[in-house]
Amino acid sequence: AITLPAEGTPWQLATGGLVRCADAVALMPSPGDDGSDDIATSPAAEWCLVLAGWDGELLPVVVVPLPGGLGSLPAAGEVLRPGLDVPLQPAEAEHGVLGLHFEPRSGRLWALLASGGIEAWNLFGARPLGRTTPRWP
User: Fold this and answer.
1) How far apart are CA 60 and CA 51, in angstroms?
2) Of 47, 49, 90, 116, whose CB count within 10 A is highest?
3) What is the pLDDT of residues 35-60, one digit of tens each?
4) How far apart are CA 123 and CA 109, in angstroms?
5) Residue 94 in contact with residue 113, Cβ under 8 Å?
């Protein structure tokens, strides 16, 4: 087990999955923004852990390189630093998020909103996919 320090407000909810770092380029901080190299092109970082969370206001997304490959832990001293905050309408953020789900193959992030709606984003393409309000029984 490993505990990694995180920047920002503590998360109330989280989801994540393993992806090829090359697929998550749009989610990473720009090279040098945090004093690190570009992990997307590093040969030691073929695989990354993508984490998305709800901190009560925002939906931050973090990409953590796994230099040892699948099944390995992040490097000691790695800091969880969001490279992207997924946009959420202020009214929705005020009500809150009840659940999150990330699909590693497609890069889709799903959020179940406290207002009863469901919103989705394509994280790999850094774009919203839409929102719907299902009729719950």
Assistant:
1) 8
2) 49
3) 454 444 444 579 999 999 999 999 99
4) 7
5) no
What rounded mean pLDDT belongs to the chain?
87
Give the C-alpha separation, 76 to 74, whole Å. Answer: 6
Q: Which of 85, 73, 93 is nearest to 64 (CA)?
A: 73
Q: Is the pTM of this model over 0.90?
A: no
Q: Between these two residues, 3 and 24, which has the higher pLDDT value?
A: 24
Measure the CA angle with vertex 17, ends 49 and 59; round to 5°. 85
pLDDT per position as a tens digit, 73-113: 888 888 889 998 999 988 888 999 999 999 999 999 999 99
* Non-local CB neighbours of 34 within 8 Å, separated by 6+ positions: 79, 81
How far apart, in whole angstroms, are the C-alpha atoms of residue 111 and residue 131?
Answer: 9
Residue at token pair 């320090």: 5
Q: How many other C-beta atoms can be found within 10 angstroms of the C-beta atom of residue 95?
A: 13
Closest CA to 136 of 121, 104, 114: 114
